[in-house]
Design goal:
Layout (H helix, E strand, L loop, with lengths): L1 H23 L21 E2 L13 H8 L2 E5 L15 E4 L6 E4 L13 H6 L14 E6 L4 E6 L7 H15 L9 E5 L2 E8 L2 E8 L4 H18 L6 H6 L1 H11 E2 L2 E2 L4 H15 L8 H17 L1
Antiparallel strand pairs: 1-4, 2-3, 3-4, 5-6, 5-9, 7-8, 8-9, 10-11
Helix pairs in contact: 5-7, 5-8, 7-8, 8-9
Length: 306
Amino acid sequence: MKARFLCFLLALQTVSCWVSVAAMRHFPPTDNAMSHPGPREAPGQVSSAPNAIESEKGMNMEEEAYNRGVSKIGSSPPSCEHKCYGCTPCEAIQVPTNNHLGVQYANYEPESWKCKCVSSFHDSMHFIWQASCPSIKNILLLDSEGKRVAVKYFSDEWPTNSAKIAFEKYVFSKTVKTNARTEAEITLLESNVIIYKFVQDLHFFVTGSDEENEIILASVLQGFFDAITLLLRNNVDKREALENLDLILLCLDEIVDGGMILETSGPLIAEKVTSHNMDADNPLTEQTLTQAWATAREHLTRTLLK
């Protein structure tokens, strides 16, 4: 009787541990960061995200962590009592220089296609868990009335132009009365972190998710502002901005691409934009294919904004 009771307590403790782990992290991962052939490969194989960990088959995860000086993240929580895909843990290690994760899969498959973990196994045949990299949702440059001067969106959160304009008006109304002229301010609106700064009759905004690092968003804002200041020769106002709108739009292209941060140094951004502008004045026959494409994009931008 006592032995049964001890077994019951042990089982209860194990289940409690599983539940606590499951509450901390969703399993299976659902962000579809990258495709993976699946768990039927050789045990110990490590798959990696771009620019992350590249390993040979059979590399032990502990050895990989030791050799590369990375930190072990842990194992995924089990989802049922069967030893199938949803239950067998996978191990993840993280490279300290970025947020990419490498995942080690065990060699297993459902004991039975009637196993209640089959759906998790099937849905998770192709995935690799990858932590989110810093991402920008939009960069806004508005005037003193909340009207757009230059904006660029990198998220599908605002699918229509009317939705984007509504968001811009909402952000402006919530920030216009704050004192953001001496230094940048931060606010949280609709689960978005917004860093903003006002100069003359121009309002600068950078938006990220509520999980983004505010320091990174602030560095993007400062880089954008510094580049504009250099390109407009310290005449940062609406009139100068509209007269040099092509430079501002090129500036946005140099800072962020598809939400990924490319550059945050104002002088470097301004230098790249200036080089594009100088190339536009050269005859087309003297330009490379890349330079010609940059020139065509600039002319198209001017046409669309007329």
